[in-house]
Write a structure and sequence with these properties.
The protein is α/β, with parallel strands linked by helices. The protein has helices at about 15-25, 50-65, 80-90, 95-105, 120-130, 155, 160-170, 185-190, 200-215, 240-245, and strands at about 1-10, 30-35, 70-75, 95, 110-115, 135-140, 175-180, 200.
Length: about 250
């Protein structure tokens, strides 16, 4: 079995349950999904500050569960902590946004990101830049009104999100639409026939990318951007994270 850790770095267990329901039907029979919700933090990450807080939590959670999974998904669209996790972990770590955007690049020349909160804009744009995909970005279109509940935001804002997607296609030249944010999981399947270009379901893209990387069985980098750092002592960190920081670079995955 390929054990896929699906870590929601938001504290909303309802969103974790939604991600599991949406990802489940696409899971291969030889894969197992291991859902985990952040034990601390904010209900949903929307700003740079919240993403910075979540990054440390991502590293803590992955360190605590090291050895119990074969590949991990950071299931928040801005991919908090992804780079650091790739440095420290000996198995592949996938970001929800990166998986969605790379999948979108295989479906069209330029993609647009559509989501439900204006505050997400700067963080999302920086995520696109981090992954080197700014020249493939047609636009980021975001709603600017409050919503009643995170758990029901996709139902409440469905029509407005479809209208934003249509505007992205007609006015921005988007070839592909990404409905961004874990709380929007499952919406792509509901609205795909109302949008004239492909719509990417982020969590399904991440799960299938996870299965692909597990099948490739890549060695751990001993050189390059994401090689494991040299051992370093620390103070006040969790025992699991301290152990990872003290681990020596390995030539290959165990």
């Amino acid at each position: 079995m390929t054990r896929i850790l699906l870590f929601n770095p938001n504290t909303s267990s309802d969103v974790t349950d939604l991600l599991v329901r949406v990802a489940g039907p696409s899971l291969s029979p030889t894969s197992e999904l291991l859902p985990v919700t952040a034990p601390r933090g904010v209900p949903y990450i929307a700003t740079r500050a919240e993403a910075a807080i979540a990054s440390g939590i991502v590293l803590d959670v992955l360190a605590e569960r090291e050895g119990s999974f074969d590949v991990a998904i950071v299931a928040a669209f801005g991919d908090p902590g992804l780079g650091g996790a790739r440095e420290l972990m000996s198995v592949p770590v996938i970001g929800l946004a990166e998986a969605a955007m790379l999948s979108a690049c295989m479906l069209g020349q330029r993609f647009s990101i559509v989501s439900f909160a204006r505050a997400l804009g700067p963080w999302f744009r920086e995520c696109v830049v981090m992954h080197g995909l700014l020249n493939r970005l047609a636009s980021i279109r975001l709603l600017d009104a409050k919503f009643a509940s995170l758990a029901s935001v996709q139902d409440e804002k469905e029509e407005l999100l479809v209208q934003l997607a249509l505007s992205a296609v007609e006015e921005d030249g988007a070839d592909v639409i990404i409905l961004a944010g874990a709380p929007l999981a499952g919406l792509a399947a509901r609205v795909r026939e109302r949008i004239p270009v492909p719509v990417v379901e982020s969590v399904v893209a991440a799960v299938k990318q996870a299965e692909l990387l597990a099948a490739l069985n890549p060695k751990m980098a001993s050189a390059g951007t994401f090689r494991r750092p040299d051992p370093k002592s620390s103070h006040g960190l969790s025992p699991a994270l301290e152990r990872l920081l003290m681990a020596r670079p390995a030539e290959a995955r165990s």
